[in-house]
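Bug #77: duplicate submission created two jobs. Keeping one. Sequence:
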Amino acid sequence: MRAGDATDKLSAPCYNPVTGMASSPQTAPEVPQYRITFFYGPEPVEHRPGLLCCTFNVKKRSWKGGVQIAVEVEERQVARARDTVGFEAWLTRLLSTLPDAERSDYESRACDLFVQHLCALKLDLAIEAGVQQENSRVSAEAFMKELDAAVPKHKGRLFASILAELDLAGYAG
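Kept job's structure:
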């Protein structure tokens, strides 16, 4: 036996005689630290024109109970995000594949879903920065630059989520 042989055998996957396959060297996926559930929105923020808000239920695994976190975004930031990912053109292509009678409902729902997913992305940024176990609000002014930078990176996930919510996941446009 050469010097490196023993080490090589230890690092090789183990053979499972029942399945006839080598076991996977990958570890089990990590359980998310937070469970996040969309609660409601988008809705205009009272006494603050130009702001929209979505509310989420958030529970950290170590918390006994969850909290509600309201996430605000400026309508201007929503418009910027829509431009950045080409939402209008994408939505126009999507709507052109649907019956005329259904387009208005799908368009309205898709626009709401875009805001919801934008707020969810902003909530992710807030959670990365740390959240307390108390009901709270992420202001429109918080994480603006970070959200602008994150939007193009999550374009595919954003569109896929909207399609799934609209029950149009097979759409390839």
